[in-house]
Amino acid sequence: MNLNDQQQNREQWGSKVGFILAAAGSAVGLGNLWKFPYTAGQNGGGAFVLVYFAILILVGFTLMLAELILGRHTQLNAISAYRKIKEKWAWVGGIGILASYLILSFYSVIGGWVVNYIVKSMTGAFNTADTEVLSSIFVNFITNPIQPIIYQAIFVILTLGIVIGGVSGGIEKYSKILMPGLFVMMVLIMIRSVTLPGASEGIKYLLLPDFSKIDGNVMLAALGQVFFSLSLGMGVIITYGSYLGKDENLPQSSFTIPLIDTIIALLAGLAILPAVFAFGFDPAGGPGLIFITLPAVFSQMPLGNVFALLFFLLVLFAALTSSISLLEASVSYVVDEWKMSRKKATFILSFVVFLLGVPSSLAQGPWSHIKFIRGLDFLDSMDFIASNLLLPIGGFFLCIFIGWVWGIENALKEATNDGKISFKLAKFWAFLIKWVAPIAILIVFIQGLK
Length: 450
Known about the structure:
Helix content is 76%, strand content 0%. By secondary structure, the protein is mainly α.
């Protein structure tokens, strides 16, 4: 099957709403519900949010549109998309797909932890506000050699079950259920959080910027959060863009997806930080905020177990909408390039990613003494390779490819549907993709190496 046959036989989204929800779901994940609140907490709250918004516009929108243009123009997976335009550049797409696959391997481990915490919520395990007790519950679970792997397998099976249904019948169908469900649960928990006595301090902390706290570290943290939260540089958005029809308004979609992603991130901040302040916990609590601090908060709420269950179901929904996109990037490549059926490709890739994730799980317990890159355990090493190396490299060369190799004129022709739709920010976007975005990504890359 040649490239033209692949393009003609390609699956497509059933509706624009379905595509937007699936793409937004890819962006909305553990990065929003887990990382955004504690990153904001560690970087001055409102100061971080303000910088985040600015960078979202300058970098997030820019790369989102670039990847959608590349995907829809070629109607191919990330590797084939680059190869079709400039054969020697196929490796850039390969970097993205490799990154998404490595991320999925350890993402599925954390997804398994979330599944376990849903079970814990149902069995009333969070009936104490003692963070030392809750910390021991968390540590005892993740260091167990068997239990986390079982829950990791459950998470991989859930992901597999959705992706195997295809683009319209699987990913789009479930995104239409998961994303509205996620939004409703997020609003419920946010309302409960902001109405707690003393929650107003948390709201002020998140939404009122203290300009004196804006420094280089805050800017770099916001840049990294935007870049990695939106699934950029992973081959995911290129793949999702390849399932779009030629009449879709790409600039509009490129605004809408980051906007939804940001609304969910802010809702997560309003769901978590006011409650943390209300009960006197540390907003800069770090990665343990979601698994240790929040259960302590829930234990002190009326109907705390109900809200704990709702919250971890919410986190599972967010994790799944991202994991299906991470798996789809590699499934699309194997189906296109190796002429394998979607069912077979999904099963094989899911099994391999599960096996690849097992060392990340064991690295929290029996293998914690084994160090890899820079003295990091296996999970953190996978994260470092994907997040600090592959994603910035892929994103940087995407900018160079679109802005300098393929050319702005060709990209804008695709973005405007051959001039049929208006794109008033065309010149501004061209400047961003050629100059601003690659320089910003280079800064993140250099900082990541440090």
